[in-house]
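Escalation from tier 1.

The customer reports that the assembly of two entities below gives different structure tokens on two consecutive runs. Tier 1 could not reproduce it. I'm attaching the input and our single run for tier 2 to review.
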Amino acid sequence: MDVLRSRRFRTAAAGLSLTALALTGCSGSQGGESDALTVWFPGTNPAEVELMTDTIVPAFEEKTGVPVEVTYLDYADLSTKLNAAFAAGNAPDIFGHGPAAVSDFVINERIEPLDDYVAAMPESDQQDLADAFTGGQVDGSQYLIPLSIQSAVLAYDRSDLREAGLDDELDVGSWEELLEVADRLTVRDGDRVDRAGLLLPSASPGNQQTFLTLLASAGGQLISDDGQRSAFNTPEGLAALEYFVDTYQGDSAVGNNLGAQWTDSPATQQPLLLDQAAMAIMPTFRVSSLLDADPEFEVAVAPPLPLGDSEEGRYLGGAGPGLMISADARDKDLAWDFIEYLLTPEISSQYVEGIGAIPARKSAVDTPYVADDPLMSDYVSLIPDYVPNPSVPGWIVARDSMAAILEQALNAQLTPQEALDQMQVEVDDALAQARG
Amino acid sequence: MMSTTLRATAPPRPAGAAQNGGRRGPRRSPSSHIRMTGWLFVAPAAVYVGVFHLFPVLYGLVLSFTDYSPISRAAPDFLGLDNYAVIFADPEFLNALRVTGTYVLMVLPPLVIGGLLLAILINRPFFGVGFVRAALYIPYIISLTAVSLIWLWMYSQSGFFNQFLDAFGLPEQRWLLESTTALPAAAAMRIWTALGSNMVLLLAGLQSVPKELYEAAHMDGAGRWGQFLHVTLPGIRPVLTFVVAMDIIWIAQGFAEVFVLTRGGPLGSTTTVNYLIWTEAFQYNQMGSASAMAFVLFACIMVFALITVRSMSGRNSR
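Tier 1 run:
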């Protein structure tokens, strides 16, 4: 029996030891080896992952002799995992995110200002990357290094225009004129719109981006220049929102599927390709993907149009997702070396080609990727007309509040003026709270 | 009982032990050895439960009384009951509670009644009964996120349901885009997913009811309905209570289907409390108020689950 007891004891002790070992393993540092550079890369695009894994990381490791541990994160998980890492004190040396998140990292002193590193770059590189870099700044300081430019543009199906007896090269001078064309392109069955003449993203938070496109095209702006308060409750804002609502409400509605989230759908499920819409505002990479799905599809991109009394139009666009250096990074110079390596013309070019994005470098306009692709050439030529979402503390809360109220306006639960008034209160409150 | 048995079979103390220089140091009795061994066996699970279940819950409770953002370098700032006061004055949270309650009421009755009917149906031998049982259970073992993605397509403008309506000349519906249909659409998917689980549990309950009771009821002149009311239902009451309580707990925590199908829209009509907690915690980094919402949800679930258990198990009637 003593033997039995002893065995029991040893078995139990072994079990306890294994548990302790397992727990110890679970609590290990995410960073792995202390001398490795840890990178959390935003996105799980296979082309992106392959380029990083097979080309960029091995080349950088060979050049510096420093191991690089890259973790690829889906955007949906990014904030959750970063928050957990910050709370646990083991954030990666380099991590990626979209420009909207940057200002909150800044006010919480989680990321490193990169002005000195940028200033040390050759002047030619700074000029070449200037369009992208602007969107990575907060209060005039560089924090995010965008790896590409992104935008949403008005795309249309040329064949639909021809069928409606129109020139298949869209020739309108304003959003108002566009609405008249959209009316001719709309296919109705009684009150129902079977094919949208003009489809503007209306799902949250895409509706806020549509509003910004229209607002900027009307000559207005979302946030005051000092980033402290809203600036959209103006005649320009009212004109923009009334236009947006009119595309979905009333007898002359030209949109359908109000509230549907289609911009994230794959190419084969895009309303333009399925002939559920003749014209639509879409992310540029999604427009290009239509040709991948159907090379015969006759898609074209319209120039930005003014609204109301404005003389020039705008599209939402600017810096795409990029990389930041953690304020707690062990070797910030090494982290910058990695980012700078990604920005070299050759690597940068491979990266944007892999994900089908607009190049961050102006000089890429001469590369075959841009020059041989009419759509990409259009996107690049429109860069001066892109207007980004604000990058101010509290922006995400402000954006979501706007999106919720815009949804009510689009569903005719609020008049455009009531919506603007409510949005002003919510946005001012969110910005003030974020600033403390 | 167990310790008595073991003590009875314990071997006599070895002779050498009595000759141990007469030293009377502290000796462990056999029962203390057994207790010790028992504790050691339990320890791994206890440590796991303590570290990964109890500690996070208690830490969440502490956070619910604080203002805390994980991206802030500042420690949680104690606020007392402020978070609770704020969320109870927040129309969005009150709406989420209402949506969650409605969702439970939409899903629970069909889930329990449907599960019971299916269990009765397959509680008899017929050709292919094994296949039918497996087919009905499969939706439950598929990831809810994967199921939600499939149903997202089925509810889309050109999806299965609209194609089905179109085949009969009926107009297409905006299933997930109208505030009147979005929650019922999500509920329908949840019912389809969980029906198999309820069916299997209730089938086990049905098979535990002694056949003799049915024979006796039959001898006493009870028809099928009478047998169901007076034999089946009382016989499966413990399982039924368990099923209803667990369903309330799981349905009230609905998140994945809302996240994939509607993102809380349209117009907040599908914003469940769990979805709002996720938004508050991981979109806006407000861990304090998110934790407060979580504990209010926990309290609501506990109260309703307890009421269900007490009323269904008949403990009040004692």
